[in-house]
Amino acid sequence: MSELKVPIRPAVRALPRYAPGKSAEGAVKLSSNEMPLPPSATVTEAMRRALEAVNRYPDLTAVALRGAIAVRHGVDPDQVCIGTGSSALLVAALGAVCEPGDRVVYPWRSFESYPIAIPASHGVGVPVPLDSEGRHDVPGLIEAAAQGARVLILCSPNNPTGPALGFDAIERVVGAVDPSTLVLVDEAYIDFATDPAVATAIPLIAEHANVLVMRTFSKAHGLAGARIGYAIGHPGLIGAIQAVSVPFGVSTAAQAGALASLEDEAGVRAAVAEVVAERERVVSALRAFGWEVSDTQANFFFLPGAGGPFVAACADEGLLVRPFPEGVRVSIGDREANDRLLGVARDFIA
Ligand SMILES: *Cc1c(COP(=O)(O)O)cnc(C)c1O
């Protein structure tokens, strides 16, 4: 290979690389927060049918899907845009508003895409540590934003720790920051939240044009492999995100699957309820064994302080879990996998 003379931006050279949850032949993957079961047959059938027209470009602005999302959330279609997962929408939203050097405040530890997407979009990340229970430090985030921020990111429920922000806390943040600061609320896991204080930030958009809510079909809808998510916000923001997005990024099959999944509300609700019931069962059992488990409103739970030896014990039983410097995150799997995990956790602490 000849020597590369094209300079790579220093900010890009320094980027942390996204580490996907591990996969291994025969092992059960509890490391990427995916749904344990495939989507319903109506969804996969709609995707199969869409493939028959794969010689055609997809609908650029996904009119049918955006219409259905708008109806679902009680907003106008021009307040909705879709993208290849909320990871892509995050990059597009940051790219649409960040001038080089603009500060982007975000909670940490949180979604590992944040410290990648921020410098990639010419922003400067300002991480605000979580509190000792893995929750957002709301006053800390507000204070950091008060020192000047183009964007403030909230992740609720928070990946990888699990707690969610109450609606009143989000309202407090939005009321405190300058209206020129984009408040980006990542609600990837909100469908799994059962705490009645937790609710979507979408109703805040009407009064606060700087609020942008990001959703994905990767988690509750079980379409992680299809790559599709959406953002809801002020039409001016949505138009800007659309302008910087790769055209025709979201495939016809992904659009069809997402639309069918929205129409199969009962099926999605049932799948989510199953995961939530398993979450409650597993977390209660772990606590009874003596484990410390962070509060979780998502389809995973976090074991603060757990590390390499626990990850190795899981691997010995064919379970892949996700280590972080602060602890280990485990996705809720099917009942059999969860039972196996409980067996490892019981023996481990004994
Ligand atoms: C999984 C996840 C997403 C969704 O990512 P996609 O790109 O839509 O698959 C967004 N935010 C958080 C916090 C996540 O964990």
What secondary-structure arrangement, pairings included, does this model have?
Blueprint: H1 10-13, E1 28-29, H2 41-51, H3 63-73, E2 80-83, H4 86-97, E3 103-108, H5 114-120, E4 124-129, H6 138-146, E5 151-155, H7 167-176, E6 182-186, E7 211-216, E8 229-232, H8 235-244, H9 252-263, H10 265-289, E9 300-304, H11 308-316, E10 319-320, E11 322-324, E12 327-331, H12 335-349
Parallel strand pairs: 1-10, 3-4, 3-5, 5-6, 6-7
Antiparallel strand pairs: 2-8, 7-8, 9-12, 11-12
Helix pairs in contact: 2-9, 3-9, 4-5, 4-8, 10-12
Bound molecules: pyridoxal-5'-phosphate.
Please characterize this protein's 3D structure.
Residues 28-342 form the Aminotransferase class I/classII large domain. Pathway: Amino-acid biosynthesis; L-histidine biosynthesis; L-histidine from 5-phospho-alpha-D-ribose 1-diphosphate: step 7/9. One of its GO terms (molecular function) is pyridoxal phosphate binding. It contains twelve helices and twelve strands. The model has no long low-confidence stretch (mean pLDDT 96). β5 (151-155), α7 and β6 (182-186) form a beta-alpha-beta unit. It has a seven-stranded mixed beta sheet, with helices on both faces. A three-stranded antiparallel beta sheet has the order 9-12-11, with helices on one face. Strands 1-10 form a two-stranded parallel ribbon. With 350 residues, the protein is of the alpha/beta class. α2 runs antiparallel to α9 (252-263), α4 packs across α8 (235-244) and α10 packs parallel to α12. The termini are far apart. Residues 33, 85-87, 111, 155, 159, 186, 188, 216, 218-219, 224, 229 line the site of pyridoxal-5'-phosphate.
